[in-house]
Amino acid sequence: MSQAAIFLCAGSGTRMRGAVHDKVLTPLLGLPVLVHSLKAFQTAGIIDQITVVYRDEEQRLDIEKAFAQHNDAGYPINWVEGGRERQDSVFNALNELSLLVEYVFIHDCARPLVHPEALRALSAAVKKDRAAVLAHRVTDTIKKASTRRTLSKRKLRDVPRAGLWAMETPQAFEREMIVEAYRRLRLENLSVTDDTAALAHQHIGVTLVENDWPNPKLTVPGDLDYLEFLISRRLG
């Protein structure tokens, strides 16, 4: 049996507002964003293969070039074209995994700061509990706004933050369990925004692995400077 990672790279990146051509290939301290994730998995030593979900043939060729230079572990790389929505991309990738894969780590490559120690903790948790996710406690004050067309003079209601957790990636699962969960989503025509929600629809619990290392997502142009600062600080 083996462990595999799914690298999600097919997102459109619309919130980058054209600031970069492709956010997962944008340089961060001289390396493409997705290569930072590759290096973290290599250091953690928890997987045997990678499936890359790509957007189009141009992107695939660019990712191949990046991996050819930095795949020091020699992982076999499988390629799967993404779907219309994130869950379609995940479904496509899961269906291409070998039956020999026991556990799968689904990672959004727009999170380049995932730490090797967090990956090892996640690996231990999924082997024990079959489903686990990196997450952090919500510490901000959260408000729910009334439904209006504009943001002006909205009525705000406090949302108690006790028990609130922000989901990160990777999210890790026993392969057969998550494949079946995604199949049922398709049958029932349900939409989800992350992989733990696929299990929630089947009333299956997920272990939270509290992440002590920053693991933000590259979403808007201003995130680039922040991510470079965090990486520089980590490197000392």
Topology readout:
Blueprint: E1 2-8, E2 27-28, E3 31-32, H1 33-44, E4 49-54, H2 57-70, E5 77-81, H3 86-96, E6 101-108, H4 116-129, E7 131-137, E8 142-145, E9 156-159, E10 165-174, H5 175-188, H6 195-200, E11 207-210, H7 223-235
Parallel strand pairs: 1-4, 1-6, 4-5, 7-11
Antiparallel strand pairs: 2-3, 6-10, 7-10, 8-9
Protein name: 2-C-methyl-D-erythritol 4-phosphate cytidylyltransferase
GO biological process, one term: isoprenoid biosynthetic process
EC number: 2.7.7.60
- Please trace the helix and strand order, writing H or E for each element: EEEHEHEHEHEEEEHHEH
CATH architecture: Alpha-Beta Complex
Give a short account of the largest sheet. 7 strands, mixed
Residue-averaged pLDDT, rounded?
94
Number of helices: 7
Poorly predicted ranges: none
Judging from the principal axes of the Cα atoms, what is the shape? Answer: globular
Distance between the termini: 37 Å
> Beta-sheet strand percentage?
25-35%
Number of strands: 11
Helix content: 25-40%
How many structural domains in the coordinates?
1
What strand order characterises the main sheet? 5-4-1-6-10-7-11
CATH class division: Alpha Beta
The assigned structural class equals alpha/beta
Let me know the CATH homologous superfamily. Spore Coat Polysaccharide Biosynthesis Protein SpsA, Chain A
CATH topology, by name, is: Spore Coat Polysaccharide Biosynthesis Protein SpsA, Chain A
Radius of gyration, in Å, reads: 18 Å
